[in-house]
Amino acid sequence: MENDNSIIVDARGKACPTPVIMTKKAVESAPGKTVTVIVDNEVAKENVSKFAASISYDVAVESREGLYYLTLTPPGGVAQPVTMENQPDVMKCESTLESQTYVVVVTTDAFGQGDSTLGKLLMKNYIYALKELDNKPSSIIFLNRGVFLTTEGSEVINDLEELEKIGVEVISCGTCLDYYNLKEKLQVGSVGNMYTIAEKMSKNRAVVL
User: Which residues contact 101 (CB under 8 A, 6 or more apart)?
Assistant: First the structure.
């Protein structure tokens, strides 16, 4: 929703990281305008507030009837472009790191240790977040139980297909597919061997899950 001076982002019912991604897109689409974000949980409120601070926007939070209304205003009321020259040193370091080519290696179908249901939800959100990053990985490599994410029944197939369409290589370990009897159920990407996987990991920064 938008008027002449502001944009309203309704992120109620949206799980992390969707509220932040929606906010980021709204800010980028309308520099200089105030953005009001509506969320319905504490985590989303904190994450959107942190995002606003990271781009030097002022943020005012109002709580009404179980909802949070976050009003993001550009510094001085006018959006300032973020450049390497006006970023603090810590941001320069992060920007340099984020600009590097990297691969993501997924060794499981659930993110982290603990409850498997939560882990699978976190993995689904992570794959979605990768799709929305400015600096996407050059390849996503799936090993061991990670291959369950590229095969029939996976909830992230659509996101992986979108990543593949924009140039991200999706590779599933052939040995792993065979071990779990999933080779005939592969839905996205290609089958890779360990030499190819090792080569890609040796030539790029690797993020291993």
Answer: 138, 204, 205
What whole-number distance in Å separates Cα of residue 134 and Cα of residue 41?
Answer: 26
161 phi and psi angles, rounded to 5 deg = -65, -40
Q: What is the arrangement of strands in the sheet containing 6-10, beginning at the earlier edge strand?
A: 6-10, 34-39, 67-73, 58-64
Q: Both tokens of residue 131?
A: 């799709």
Are 34 and 73 a contacting pair, CB within 8 Å? Answer: yes
Do the beta carbons of residue 100 and residue 205 sit within 8 Å?
yes
Token pair of 139 as six digits: 């390849």
pLDDT tens, position by position, 60-104? 888 888 888 888 888 765 444 333 343 334 333 343 344 468 888
Distance CA 142, CA 191 (A): 10
H helices present in the chain, as ranges? 18-29, 42-54, 89-98, 116-132, 157-165, 174-179, 194-203
pLDDT in tens, 100-114: 688 888 888 888 777
